Amino acid sequence: MFPSQFRLLKRKLNTNRKVYRSFLTKAEKKSPPGIDDLTPVLELKVWEEINCLSCSNCCRTMTPTFTRQDITRISAHFGQTPAQFKAQWLELDKNNDWVNKIQPCQFLNLKTNMCSIYEIRPVDCSGFPHLTKRKFHEYAHVHKQNIEYCPATLTMVQMLMENYENKK
Question: How is residue 65 annotated by DSSP?
Answer without folding.
Answer: P
